[in-house]
Design goal:
This protein has 84 residues and is of the alpha+beta class. It has 2 helices and 7 strands, in the order βαββαββββ. It has a 5-stranded mixed β-sheet. A two-stranded antiparallel ribbon has the order 3-6. Strand 4 and strand 5 form a beta hairpin. The relative contact order is 0.27. The model has no long low-confidence stretch (mean pLDDT 89).
């Protein structure tokens, strides 16, 4: 049985936004998604940021890798904060 693909929209910030040349990513996935699944998929689909550190926030909160993600959630890639 084939599960329908869901589109997850992931907002980009700071140097990730400029490195990828866009404001967001669209990731398709066919099974229940957890943060760790989404992170792996993002790194596989975008090799230019495969080694770049970032955290995922879901609905304005940093969450653990086992947190479930729904396609309608607001998802953001947040790079480390730098500055002085």
């Amino acid at each position: 049985m084939n599960l329908p693909m869901k589109k997850y929209r992931v907002r980009l910030f700071s140097h990730l936004k400029y490195q990828l040349g866009r404001d967001f990513l669209e990731i398709e996935f066919s099974k229940k998604m957890m943060v760790q699944d989404l992170e792996q998929k993002i790194r596989n689909v975008n090799p230019e940021i495969a080694e770049v550190p970032f955290r995922l926030a879901v609905n304005h909160e940093f969450v653990s890798g086992t947190h479930s993600v729904r396609a309608e959630d607001e998802i953001a890639l947040i790079p480390p904060v730098q500055g002085g």
